[in-house]
Amino acid sequence: MDKQKILIVDDAESYRLLLSEILYFYGYDIYCAKDGVEALHLIKQEGIKLVITDILMPEMDGNELVRNIKKINPKTKVIGMTGGGELISADSAEKLSRMYDFDEFFQKPITHEDLISYIQ
């Protein structure tokens, strides 16, 4: 059975590496992108079905990225995450998910327990 391909998109290299190490440990096939443009290229090339993306990024933010991903393949799951300073409530996260078409929305830092429980 093929491993699930997961793409991590974040302009912060340290956070990309942290998430990729956690997910690799759990047996996933991990790809990383530093921005939305690189992410879209990998999604088209590799057939990735799960994307974890930061919201606040230069050039193409996470909101624009999720819209482009859903145009390519509406079934691709996209988890949004933000470390935008203020804590977001569960209600706010749900509103952001609906507003921007994310399948799930997390506050950074994401605990690996929350992330793995959502993915599995």
Task: Describe the structure in brief.
This protein has helices at residues 13-25, 36-46, 62-72, 90-100, 112-119; strands spanning 5-9, 29-33, 50-54, 77-82, 104-107. It is of the alpha/beta class.
Keyword list:
alpha/beta; Rossmann fold; five-stranded parallel β-sheet; about 120 residues
Give an overview of the whole structure.
This protein is an alpha/beta fold. The chain has one domain (5-119): Rossmann fold (3-Layer(aba) Sandwich). Helix content is 45%, strand content 21%. It is built from 5 helices and 5 strands, in the order βαβαβαβαβα. It has helices spanning 13-25, 36-46, 62-72, 90-100, 112-119, and strands at residues 5-9, 29-33, 50-54, 77-82, 104-107. Strands 2-1-3-4-5 form a 5-stranded parallel beta sheet, sandwiched between helices. Helix 3 (62-72) links the parallel strand 3 (50-54) and strand 4. Helix 2 runs parallel beside helix 3 (62-72). The chain is globular, with a radius of gyration of 13 Å. The two termini are 15 Å apart. The mean pLDDT is 84.
How would you spell out the order of helices and strands?
A: EHEHEHEHEH
Q: Which strand order spans the largest sheet, edge to edge or round the barrel?
A: 2-1-3-4-5
| Low-pLDDT stretches | none
Shape: globular
Binned, the helix content reads 40-55%
| CATH class value | Alpha Beta
Number of domains: 1
Decide which structural class fits the backbone: alpha/beta
Radius of gyration: 13 Å
CATH H level: which superfamily?
Response regulator
- Report the major sheet: 5 strands, parallel
Total of DSSP H or I helical runs spanning 4+ residues: 5
Mean pLDDT: 84
**Which CATH architecture?**
3-Layer(aba) Sandwich
Question: Cα distance, first to last residue?
Answer: 15 Å
Kindly estimate the percentage of residues that lie in beta strands according to DSSP.
15-25%
Q: How many beta-strand segments?
A: 5
CATH topology category name = Rossmann fold
